[in-house]
Structure formats: structure tokens, C-alpha cells
Design brief:
One of its GO terms (molecular function) is DNA binding. InterPro entries: Cro/C1-type_HTH (IPR001387), Lambda_DNA-bd_dom_sf (IPR010982). It comes from Acinetobacter baylyi (strain ATCC 33305 / BD413 / ADP1). The protein is mainly alpha-helical. The protein has a single domain, classed as lambda repressor-like DNA-binding domains (434 Repressor (Amino-terminal Domain), Orthogonal Bundle). Helices cover 65% and strands 0% of the residues. Helix 1 crosses helix 5. The radius of gyration is 15 Å and the shape is globular.
């Protein structure tokens, strides 16, 4: 499992540069680069900042990493992935829209 590959995957899905992710996660561009390339470990604090930047949980980042191969490709087709892995891949605005839709559907069931 390589957290760096998952971070790169998520960053690219958001259309962000390493500098943008560094700004969002309160670290330097070189730290992001080193993390993505496996040249640096990660602290709980940086994982929390990254999760906040990606609007997800730390566990979702780990789950995504577990479902990636050594080249950073997803191992399974989307129909067999855990819902968290699918959700985290979506742009943040789509995640927000889906959350709103889900909460609306739940409220109508009450």
C-alpha cells in the first residue's frame, strides 16, 4: 500500500498542482512531491490536512491506497469497489451535490 500514489491520484482528480495541494494542506510543495514519490513518510498531522483538503477522511485515503496497484491504477472495476473509494474519486463539487441529494432522500423517508 502506497499512500503517496493515492495522494497523487486524488490531487490529479481534483485538477490541482502540487503547489495547490501544499497550500491547501499547510505544507510545502517539496513535501507533497516527496510523499507522492515515496521519498518521505507521512505524519498523522499531514494526513489530517490532506484529508481535509480532499474533503474526505484519512481512512478513505488508506482505503483508496489499498485498492491501487504499484503504478497508481485502481485494481478493481468501479462496480466492485467499496463506495468510499468511488466517492473519494469524485470532484468536491460533485461530492457536495451527492451528499445533498442523499440527505434529501433520507429526509423524505422520515
Amino acid at each position: 500500500m502506497d499512500i503517496g500514489r493515492a495522494v497523487r491520484f486524488l490531487r490529479k482528480r481534483q485538477g490541482w498542482t502540487q503547489q495547490q495541494l501544499a497550500d491547501f494542506s499547510h505544507t510545502s510543495k517539496s513535501n507533497i512531491s516527496n510523499l507522492e514519490n515515496g521519498n518521505q513518510g507521512y505524519s498523522p498531522a499531514i494526513l489530517e490536512y490532506l484529508a481535509k483538503a480532499f474533503n474526505c477522511s484519512v481512512s478513505q485515503i488508506f482505503l483508496l491506497a489499498e485498492n491501487m496497484d504499484n503504478e497508481g491504477n485502481l485494481l478493481k472495476d468501479w462496480q466492485h469497489m467499496p463506495i468510499d473509494v468511488l466517492f473519494i474519486q469524485l470532484p468536491q463539487e460533485v461530492q457536495c451535490q451527492l451528499k445533498h441529494l442523499i440527505f434529501t432522500l433520507i429526509d423524505t423517508k422520515k
